[in-house]
Amino acid sequence: MIRGDFIGVRSVGNHLKKINWTVSHYQKNFILILLIASIPGLITGVLIYWLAVGAVEDELRKLHGDQIVQRAKNIDEQFRNLEYSASRWAIEPRFGESLRSIDLVKQFTESYDISKTLVRLQGTHPLIKDVDLYLEGEKKILFNSEYQLLKEKEISKFHQTLENGNIYWGHYPGKDQNESSLALIHTIPAASKHPFGSIIITINREKALDLLKTLTPYGKGATFILNRDNQVILSADNTNDQLFVSALKKELTNHDIDKESFQFTFNKQIYSVSLGHLSRVDSDWKYVSAAPMSSITAPLIIVSRIILIISASALILAIIMSWFASYRIYTPIRNLMSKLMNETTGKWNHTGKDEFLLIEQQWEELSQRSHLLQNRLSEQVTEIKNSFVVQLVQGYFSHYKEEDLVKRMKSYGWVVENHQYIALDVKLTGLFESKDRFSNNDESLVTFLTANIMEELANEIFEQYNVIKFPDLSVGLLVVYPSGTMINEDIQRFANKVMDAVNEIINLQVIVSISESTNSIKKVHYLFEEMEKWKRLRIFENKNQIIDLKEMGSLKDINSFRYPFAVEKEIIQAIRMGHIEGIEKLIHQFLEELAENGRNEINIQQGVRQLYSSIQHEILHAGIHPHDLYNGKDMFEELTQVHTIESFTKWFIESIILPFNQRLEGRMNMELKRIVEKVVLLIQENYMNDISLDSCAEEAGTSPYSLSKAFKLIVGINFIDYLTDIRIQKAKELLLHSTMKINDIAETVGYRHSYFNRIFKKQMGIPPSQYRKLHQEKELLEIEKDS
User: HTH araC/xylS-type domain location, by residue (predicted)?
Assistant: First the structure.
């Protein structure tokens, strides 16, 4: 019906186009109505344009000047707050006379607190990039996030920071001779005539420029700040001309301009220049802001265009209204019907029929044509047939009777009497390993290409078939063939051709699953279900495979699953300690042990998911959310795309462990980490002796409290639990692999006999004697079973 409506409207429009528009009476009516409708609008538009332009332009210039003044005050306030903060820091006791004689190397805790204070001060103002502390004593020391002894060639440039006054602005050369940054410098102690150090606050150039760019609110022009020597200390230039700032500075110097604003012409373009002063602690700065007049008056241009557009729209509306009015005056319904009927049913005679009744008759005729087209389209059942097969495969017709399904199959053109059904599933693999050629968004394209390949090959081999596309990089094929026909050879030939074609054209690997055959339509759904189960038992390697269910045994024959908990524990411990170089070997060992009983997909996928879950638990325990660490990626989804042990190892290292380690190292104090590593090594070497938190802290050169806190943060468990775990693990090895008495084992691992029994039972749930007995009996049973 909708198609018929469209045809009818288009037909009427075609007839209207054939009206004789050159008739003089129509022309006179049209011109008269057009003049009456458009002249008032044009006059109003012209008056608004000329009267509004001047007032708007003056207002825009005033508004621009006010904006520059307000934003300059904001910049001045930002620098003033920074000066106030620097003065307040300089009088803190932390930076008093006590620093003149303190030995910062021996008193590590004091050094660490100073570093933390500098890092904290660094975040107190958005313009601060770095806060450094220079101390000039027997040793010349520079503090930031950590301290360092300065070399002889570096001392002179830092010594200069003590010579220019109590607090002043200057250029700080930093650690690199090639870099120079604007800096606020305050000597310490505050107000001292003989300072021994200075707090050096380096300004973040990018943020300072962003603040400076607010003086050019239109994104064009240039802004810069001059010191008392008329040297440019900050400059933001968006003019794309390196000579602009120099030319404007020269204009200021040559004419000694003291006005708050003036106009400056450069390269045939006029700029509005605004001047002002910024009062600093040691001198006055001058800011200069230059914005193109075209940018300032851009809203005026927009207003002008809006006025013109409104005027033009009014004119167009007047033309349209004039056309409709003149058309109604000139062309009655009778003439319209006469023209319409002459082209459809021949010459129209005045028979007294109602014109709208004739329109209704024409409408019914067009509707009949539309219904005819719809009936023809309904005869095309290909899509309906494909939809039926998809629903059949997905089990939506399980409640239907076999007879009803047979009838529906026949209605779609299938021959099903004395026929059987067999199914194939073609699964594509290697997309993850081919990310240089494909992305995750190419899955539907790859599936579509595979379906086309299977369609062409099936057309050469089978008489009745249907290709089904699945959303998981799989394509199914349902084949209907006469009962008693030996189709196995054709199926194998088809599978090999599909593998060769996909390997050659798409360069991906293929897993072809072949179901058993059935003579029942209702069981077609179960054919695909069985193939889905057996696909998970494929060999976990990125290569072509054929899984023929007729040649497979039972699902009960799957090898038992053994998870390598010991290797997982080593991996987690290596991650905690940051030993990245050994993790790759451990992960490869983990995967090899996981695949020891057969490299089928269900075992490998389940094992690596468990390993990733354990690593994710460690990430969460460290206070890091995996969603933020991996930028919202679904890592479990990526796991399903990996198909080789080598790719798994690479994926774990590059996608999981390295990002976590980098984030962790950024947060962790490296000195504490080295101390904990030293204590862990000390425990592993001396667990059998009388060892305590206090003795280890003394050996490492720190306090027991600091060691306990750092040990918990880095290792993940507290000191005594880690020592107990080491001793119990060694005791378990001696119980299982030696004939030593339990008393001797207790002394060997550093416990008294009575306390050893209690702590072992608390950790393992059973006494050591029973633990040895149970494992000996288990080994005997395994030996008897193997024999």
Answer: 677-774
Smallest Cα–Cα separation from 67: which of 207, 210, 218? Answer: 218
Residue type, 545: Q
Rounded to whole angstroms, how far apart are CA atoms 269 and 244?
11
The continuous run of DSSP H or E covering 224 comes out as strand 222-226
Alpha-carbon torsion (645, 651, 654, 656), positive or negative: negative
Nearest to 651 by CA among 623, 612, 698: 612
Measure Cα distances from 101 to 71, 90, 137, 196 in Å.
46, 17, 8, 10
For tokens 């010459």, name the residue.
Answer: 347
The DSSP secondary structure of 15-55, one letter per residue, reads HHHTS-TT-HHHHHHHHHHHHHHHHHHHHHHHHHHHHHHHH
- C-alpha distances (whole Å) from 207 to each of 220, 417, 470, 705 are 18, 80, 52, 40
User: Could you tell me whether strands 181-188 and 167-172 are parallel, antiparallel, or unpaired per DSSP bridges?
Assistant: antiparallel
CB 298 within 8 A of CB 218: yes
Q: Which of 229, 228, 272, 227 minimizes the C-alpha distance to 248?
A: 272
**What is the bridge-based pairing of β-strands 474-482 and 419-429?**
antiparallel
CA-nearest of 425, 446, 444 to 434 is: 446
Query: Which helix (H) or strand (E) segment is 169 a member of?
Result: strand 167-172
- 573 in Cβ contact with 608 (< 8 Å): no
Q: For 190-228, how does the pLDDT look when each residue is reduced to its tens digit (9 = 90+)?
A: 777 788 888 888 888 888 888 888 877 777 788 888 887
What pLDDT band is residue 118 in, cutting at 50, 70 and 90?
Answer: confident
Task: Give yes or no for a contact between 608 and 654, defined as CB atoms under 8 angstroms apart.
Answer: no
Handedness of CA 668, 672, 673, 676 (dihedral sign): negative
Q: Which of 187-201, 479-493, 499-513, 658-672 has the lowest mean pLDDT?
A: 658-672
Q: How many CA atoms lie within 13 A of 769 on its CB side?
A: 7
Distances (CA, A) of 415 to 53, 385, 521, 570: 82, 13, 12, 62
**CA–CA separation, 638 and 435 (whole Å):** 12
pLDDT 10s digits, 694-726: 888 888 888 887 788 888 888 888 998 998 999
Q: Residues near 293 by Cβ (< 8 Å), separated by ≥ 6?
A: 263, 269, 270, 271, 272
Per-residue CA distances from 730 to 633, 703, 726, 745, 760 (Å): 41, 28, 6, 9, 11
- Identify the CA nearest to 476 among candidates 438, 513, 521, 504: 513
Residues 363 and 6 sit within 8 Å (Cβ to Cβ):
no
| 90-102 confidence digits (pLDDT tens) | 788 777 777 777 7
- DSSP-derived letter for residue 161 is G
Contact of 30 with 323, CB cutoff 8 Å: yes
Residue 700 neighbours by CB under 8 Å, 6+ apart:
675, 678, 679, 682, 707
Question: Could you tell me the pTM of the whole model?
Answer: 0.37
First-to-final CA distance of the chain: 82
pLDDT in tens, 525-539: 888 887 777 666 555
Q: What is the dihedral of CA 629, 634, 640, 642, to 10 degrees?
A: -40
Pairing of the two strands 147-149 and 140-143 = antiparallel
Dist. CA 187–CA 408, nearest whole Å: 94
